[in-house]
Design a protein that fits this description.
By secondary structure, the chain is an all-alpha fold. It contains 13 helices and no strands. The protein is 56% helix and 0% strand.
Length: 352
């Protein structure tokens, strides 16, 4: 929480440059942006004014040694909530201006933004739909306002009302989670085949996706062609899904970790997840997606990476290590069946 002694400094201590600066080109002329971004910018500006007004009120009623009156404490609580709101809204406004493929989720000192998980999972779910990423953030802000009894300006209410309902987004989010999990499974399986078996020539997207497709097609979920489409869509975030699958698709929250001081919260574990994702990126950069030719599974040139000033956290135990499991016996059995089928049809091109 920033100090309240200087209301002018609140916005500059926010995670990013001012919204106005973010949307101005080098010449000072507004850069090209859609109407949606313009309204988001206006809304963040209004929220910024609220913070400054509340900061002025809070600092004009200093809290005494006894903690101040309930009214004074209420002002400080409102200031805290409004500051968080501006922080999140500033990120929403700047979503379209963040150069890919860097995850712009840190402030100038390298600390994680309050909305970092929303930003990361929004990109994981919708790397191809930036408007969906923004809509997820808007709904999160709306939920936060409702829970904390924050009154929104008319422009904010209009923006929220125009946003798809949570039920609509939830359905698409659930569908995308299935897509991401399938891509993460393929990613990890390719890497584990290359690391733990003698089937390195079979550690490819085509071979692994054929096996996954056989299982999913029987359940009416996806064909190999569908998997190829999913793989291409998730190209910038394959390593993130690989790390998510490898850690059991969850964030851990423990009150106590042996050998570690204090608790291991979900927030801390999220930072450890990002460490694992960058390790997964490095592993994928050294493994081709095809047995004979083709680009790597992941690479800094097209995959989301952390900013250069990111300070990697010290993760206790296995929480910050990208751990691959050996391929399941059933996978090896199905690869053997593929090889047998190919050897019986020598004129048919081998699956790469």
């Amino acid at each position: 929480m920033p100090e309240t002694g200087d209301s002018q400094d609140l916005w500059s201590r926010g995670v990013r440059p001012t919204v106005a600066r973010a949307f101005l080109g080098a010449s000072g002329a507004p850069s090209v942006r859609d109407d949606h971004s313009s309204r988001l910018e206006e809304h963040a500006g209004n929220a910024n004014k609220i913070v400054r007004r509340r900061a002025a009120v809070a600092t004009s009623h200093p809290v005494g040694g006894g903690g101040g009156t309930s009214e004074h404490r209420s002002h400080l609580g409102s200031l805290d909530r409004a500051y968080v709101l501006v922080l999140v809204l500033s990120t929403i406004c700047l979503t379209g201006s963040c150069p890919m493929p860097v995850l712009q989720i840190l402030d100038g000192s390298g600390q994680m933004n309050v909305d970092a998980p929303l930003q990361v999972f929004g990109k994981m779910l919708f790397p191809d739909k930036q408007h969906r990423q923004i809509q997820l953030l808007i709904n999160a802000v709306a939920d936060y306002c409702v829970r904390n009894d924050i009154h929104c300006a008319p422009t904010a209410l209009k923006l929220i009302q125009e946003n798809p309902a949570n039920e609509v987004l939830k359905k698409e989010v659930e569908e995308r989670f299935e897509v991401g999990m399938a891509v993460g499974l393929i990613y990890c399986t390719i890497l584990s085949l290359g690391r733990f078996t003698e089937l390195k020539d079979r550690a490819s997207f085509n071979t692994v996706s054929a096996i996954v497709a056989n299982n999913l097609t029987n359940k009416g979920v996806a064909s190999k062609r569908t998997l190829q489409s999913w793989w291409d869509t998730m190209k910038p975030v394959r390593h993130l899904w690989g790390a998510w699958v490898a850690r059991g698709a969850q964030l851990n929250n423990f009150e106590y970790v042996e050998g570690d001081v204090g608790s291991h919260t979900a927030g801390v574990d999220f930072a450890c997840f990002l460490v694992q994702a960058m390790q997964a990126l490095d592993a994928g950069a050294h493994r081709s997606s095809a047995a004979s030719k083709g680009g790597p599974l992941a690479a800094e040139s097209f995959s989301y990476v952390m900013p250069a000033h990111w300070r990697r956290p010290k993760c206790p135990g296995p929480f910050g290590t990208f751990v691959l499991k050996e391929p399941a016996p059933e996978v090896l059995k199905q690869i053997g069946a593929l090889k047998a089928a190919e050897s019986s049809q020598p004129s048919k091109p081998r699956r790469k």
